[in-house]
Amino acid sequence: MVCQDLPLVQKVCEIYDKLSKLNSLKPSKDVNTLFTDLVLTCIPPAAIDVTKLCKNVQEIRSRLIKICGEAEGLLESHYSSILGSFDDNPLDHLSIFPYYNNYIKLSLLEFTILTQFGPLDEPKRVAFLGSGPLPLSSIVLATYHLTNTCFHNYDIDSSANHLASRLVSKDPDLSERMFFHTVDVMDVTSALKEYEVVFLAALVGMDKTEKVRVIDHLAKYMAPGAILMLRSAHGARAFLYPVIDPCDLLGFEVLSVFHPTDDVINSVVIARKLPLPFHSTNADQQGKLEGTIVLPIKCSEIDSFIYPLNQIGLIEDLALEEQV
Questions:
Q1: Residue-wise pLDDT tens digits, 174-196
Q2: Does domain 96-318 have CATH number 3.40.50.150?
Q3: Is residue 273 within 8 Å of residue 222, measured between CB atoms?
Q4: 20 to 30 A from 8, CA-CA: which of 118, 168, 182, 200?
């Protein structure tokens, strides 16, 4: 087991200790400084497997991911409120959000992967689960890449959806193609069959158990052949977001996994819903599994790479080996 003796792990634990003592995670000088330090610590490629950390660090990582999720929500709400106060189109001012360029890069990466492995034609209906108060992924994809697609954004928080819908209400195009639904992802059932592509936000399911439960739900209700796009994390970036392993995707054929090594933090996993009948796996209190489990033949991952924004065609060489 790896414990606090690694300088990187020690630094992350120190930052966590400072974050956990703050009275509020709302945007402020102290909050911004600590999270900037945390991100800069975790971004450089590091040969670290978070599953092999000692129990104490595992617990710190779990709590840190929840802190990051809360802070991210507060940051997005703060900027969504500012953007919504503009008299003209709020979407003309998105660049005031400090991480806007990261979303531009991430959305381009996801679109590139989707064109390589997804539907031949532009999807008509896409679902984004966990869209939040500042749905930049949906906005950027709809504005620059999927320009004829309708986006259905789902979030459990009604106030987040109120802020988000206000952002697109003054845009003549997106106001007609973006829809917002206030509902728990686990309560979305038959509607999932209507989408050719489903995006799952990184913070829907804050730990492995919750995330797998959501994926299991999607495997039960998504249309056969539909594409699932997930955000994961790799290396030290797993201190910021939950990790999805290809073997977690029961009922799906994992098509590819991408680990950026630039300032785009999230890894991207693309999978296709298997056409075979899939029965949800339910664990009882003793941990026994019931139901039919469909596993991908291979559960390997791709090596990290820096994706070339101006050489999109190179990405196709990084697919997982053909699956039986």
A1: 999 999 999 999 999 999 999 99
A2: yes
A3: yes
A4: 200
